């Protein structure tokens, strides 16, 4: 169990020598029920039903094995009596919770095994103090949530293993602080959503295992952040298609995409993976494949277990492999005379299509039967029990799909252990009660684009395991209270792109107490008119209401929303920040209001959520003025402020927002005169890149606030703190009247100050704001 890959510890030699002389005192402290190995400084208390860490363990111990106990909770400072530990094994000890600071004091620990416990949340400071830890194993627990910051103090960690847990989502910066991580194992979870910055800051990671999850799309943006990754395991995710430029990973050499449901892989999918040498596409549904563009040194392409059809359409791939010396693995699935031939053994000249339109007779018949073109899904597997007509089932993967097969009724007769049921792009119109009888194991149900305008009460009854329900892009105009009754675990509900005119009533939501995400984007909801509209779904974390026609939000609309983390209201018709609705959403971190006609933000607009808010988006709202107290209450917790594409000439002071990582002020007509000196100084003071351009005066139009030198000539005295730092009107007019010569403003040697038209000596260096290096945050450019 103990790994011995770590360097020998000189300290241990010293201790060992010491012990040779004082050994009696050590063995004397080896109290029951534990057993001790004096030479190895090891203590083992395995399977002793211990309910807490024994306080009597000798201080000098370096390896402690507490497997198979009953510890339940690890309180703060659980190991403070054994500061020299390097290895700690806590497997199968029935641990439910690891409190903040549980391992504090274990600064020498290199190996920590917490596998096979019942841990469900990794708190922000659960692993505090483990400064030397190299391997952390948390496999086979129930982790559903990684709080951002959970790993911030683990700069030595090489391996983090979180396989066989219950992760469905990874938030931004989930792994921040892992400065030396090499391998991150997230296999065997239920991940279906990775925030774009989930892997940001993992600059040393070379291997990432994401196999056996529920990813339906390759998370292109998220992966692009992984600049050093060479090995990526994505096997066993339900992906169907990979389009152009899907993978953009400069150092990737090994990519495992086997055992997915790929029906098509665009020839340019890997165009930004230039170093790829091994590509595993085995056990997918690929009937043909074009030469793969991009990788220059591809040496293995594995197509084993695909229904590869060896006709003229495969010839380009075969020839390309021959020329490029790509080892092509796999067998022909047809036509009959080539069936079971290794792809490599087939002479390209034999890859032919006969008859008109390049189809053989068999192919024609087959294509007609499938009602599709040549690259249509593979020939129907022979009819099997447990797979309805005109559907395809993979019993082993527990997947069934009847996508786009013209079904007008929900097909019946799927295997009871089906876990993914894909019925998208059919024509159901109406979904009757009990349509999915007996499918208690389905986790993910796709009913997108099925022209559904009515769902009867209890349609999903019996779907006890349903977590993901996709109903987007149908024709629903309303939903009855019992629509979702009988599927109590629904966690992610997608209703975007329907025609709903009202928000779901509390009664409609009530049967889904586990709901975490509700997507209602692109509907026709015009008002949020009931107070407490989320009161029956208290777990809800993300509410998507973008692109509706919402023009008003009643006070206390979100009272309460105890777990709401993200609220998307962009693209609506709001004319003000709905401050009064936000009073009881204590964890709201992200608020999206872009694209609403909000021209003015008044005082204290964000006060109700000031304690929690981290990201605020107000782009393209036509915003012309912000009260100087509009950001009152917001402080160091704010990470992102986006005000792009507005009409702002000035801004309230941002100096209290000391934690900002991203600021976007682009495309605002900022008035560049001495009144925004403080903004300019603030920009130089923080080490992030702020994109801001001048709109006025005309001479400076379009120039970056950072580049103009007008500020060199401003009086050195800063405006008194009581004055609003950036003022709009009155003072704003002065420079327009003065009209300094452009040559004075563009670098050069300004001799006149606009605000203070006295001759000034050449600017003293001290008058120039100097970038301070205090802020450690990474730079971030937001413009574009
Ligand atoms: C641990 O507790 C269980 C149940 O309480 C008991 O059956 C078992 O014998 C105990 N084992 C030891 C080593 O005490
Ligand atoms: C190709 O895929 C098959 C099936 O997944 C696997 O058994 C085999 O090892 C792979 N071959 C190579 C060279 O990767
Ligand atoms: C699902 O059930 C079918 C039929 O009972 C069986 O053949 C298949 O192996 C099962 N799949 C799994 C993963 O257990
Ligand atoms: C809202 O609609 C606009 C315009 O159609 C589109 O560009 C944008 O992506 C939509 N936003 C969301 C979140 O769906
Ligand atoms: C610059 O940073 C220092 C220290 O963080 C702070 O005291 C000062 O107010 C800042 N100046 C501006 C103009 O934001």
UniProtKB/TrEMBL annotation:
* Any one Gene Ontology cellular component term annotated for this protein: plasma membrane
The Gene Ontology terms for molecular function here are: transmembrane signaling receptor activity
Q: Which PROSITE patterns does the record match to this protein?
A: LRR
Q: What are the UniProt keywords, alphabetically?
A: Disulfide bond, Extracellular matrix, Glycoprotein, Immunity, Inflammatory response, Innate immunity, Leucine-rich repeat, Receptor, Repeat, Secreted, Signal
User: What segments bear the compositional bias annotation Basic residues?
Assistant: 771-784
| Top-rank taxon, per record | Eukaryota
Has keyword Secreted?
Answer: yes
Asked whether the keyword ATP-binding is assigned, the reply is: no
- Entry's Pfam families? LRR_8, LRRCT
Q: Where is this region: Disordered?
A: 713-784
Q: Where are the transmembrane segments?
A: none
- Domain LRRCT stretches: 306-354, 668-715
Query: How is this protein organized at the quaternary level?
Result: Associates with collagen and binds to collagen fibrils.
Q: What is the annotated role of this protein in its UniProt record?
A: Potential negative modulator of chondrocyte differentiation. Inhibits collagen fibrillogenesis in vitro. May influence chondrocyte's differentiation by acting on its cellular collagenous microenvironment.
- Name the protein family: Belongs to the small leucine-rich proteoglycan (SLRP) family. SLRP class IV subfamily. Belongs to the Toll-like receptor family.
The name of this protein is Chondroadherin-like protein
